Amino acid sequence: MTRGNQRDIDRERAKKRSEKNEKAKNNDFAKRKLTDADIMREKQKKAEEKKQKEEEDMIKTQMKDKNLDYLKKFEELNVQDDEQQHQDDQEEEKKQPEVKEMIKPQNHQQKKKN
């Protein structure tokens, strides 16, 4: 019977060992589950930050495009205004010599009188 007693003792030891291993496996699974969840949260956070940054960049590029369009329109208006001003200046220059000629003779007449 000593042999039978030994078998019972061995069975109990094996049972205890298997219970320890099961607990360790369960703990490992729970720990892994938590760490996997943490990793996923980090990934989601990074993805959200990346998405937000892309949206901000898109907004910035749209604003730049709008500003460039505004500047182009402004430059076109300035060019048109400059052309108009240039034409006006040329017309005034044409008129000015006539006025200067009219003024010059009067000055000469006054000088001769003095």
Low-confidence regions:
none
Structural class: mainly alpha
| Topology pattern, helix = H, strand = E | H
Describe the global form.
rod-shaped
Tell me the radius of gyration: 48 Å
Describe the 3D structure:
It is rod-shaped, with a radius of gyration of 48 Å. The chain is built from 1 helix and no strands. It starts with a helix and ends with a helix. The protein has one helix spanning 2-113. 98% of the residues lie in helices and 0% in strands. The protein is mostly helical and 114 residues long. The protein has a domain at 11-84.
Architecture blueprint of SSEs:
Elements: H1 2-113
Which features would summarize this protein structure in a list?
114 residues; single chain; 1 helix; mainly alpha
Summarize the structure.
This protein is mostly helical. The protein has one helix spanning 2-113.
